[in-house]
Amino acid sequence: MAGKSARLREHLLALLRDGLAPHDRLPPERSLAEEFGLSRLTVRRVLDELEQEGLVYRVRGSGTFAGEPRIAKSVELTSFTEDMRARGLRPGSSPVTRELVPAGADVGYALRLSPSEEVLRLTRVRTADGEPMCLERTHLPAALVPGGLDLDGSLYEELARRYDIVPRRAEQTINATVLGPDDAEALQVAAFSPAFLVRRTAYDDRGRPVERAESLYRGDRYAYHLTIYRT
């Protein structure tokens, strides 16, 4: 099933890239389900992912449409610790929650694992000069970190030191959002405060996905700075 849904995703991405103009309608869910031998629920899940990435949008009763292209800028792949040090801030974190859990559909897809395979999930509040800045949830393939991680500082430094795993590139999306009550409490701000939701899948030199991270950054304290060039 994962292979079929991946083929559907690649098919839709090709349509959006080469076949459809902004606001053109995508094929109906029913025809996509029949063409790829998938359930309507699975088709809807793939479309949900594309919608979350800003590639498509839905109109109730009318269907799914190609979105306007977003401007994407490359940024350097750094850990939170490296990022805060570069800004002249002292990085830190609250106690880390570590647990082995099934990958599930979304994380499994990102890490090329079956939903039942185990991943190490790390949850921690990252701080800058002692103030909560980011709520970070990271998933790592359990097979790549068999001894676990004693993590107080940089995840990337620990992966390199203990397992010789060095992330070299990443696919990352950044969306505006608001914080639910629990996440807001963890970051010590009011519920429904603005935030950045950053989703990242990092790959090593061999092209293996080694990390799936989802981070919530406080909108009142964090900003992205990009240097761009005109060609």
Commentary on this structure:
The strands form 2 sheets. Strands 3, 4, 5, 6, 7, 8 and 9 form a 7-stranded antiparallel beta sheet that branches. This protein has a two-stranded antiparallel sheet with strand order 1-2. The mean pLDDT is 87. The chain is 30% helix and 30% strand. A hairpin with a 3-residue loop joins strand 1 and strand 2. The chain has 231 residues and is α+β, with helices and mostly antiparallel strands. Helix 2 crosses helix 3. The protein has 2 domains: 65 residues, Orthogonal Bundle (Arc Repressor Mutant, subunit A), CATH 1.10.10; 139 residues, Chorismate lyase (3-Layer(aba) Sandwich). The N and C termini lie far apart (43 Å). It is globular. InterPro entries: Bact_HTH_transcr_reg (IPR050679), Chorismate_lyase_/UTRA_dom_sf (IPR028978), Tscrpt_reg_HTH_GntR (IPR000524), UTRA (IPR011663), WH-like_DNA-bd_sf (IPR036388), WH_DNA-bd_sf (IPR036390). One of its GO terms (molecular function) is DNA binding. It comes from Nonomuraea pusilla. One of its GO terms (biological process) is negative regulation of DNA-templated transcription. This is Transcriptional regulator, GntR family.
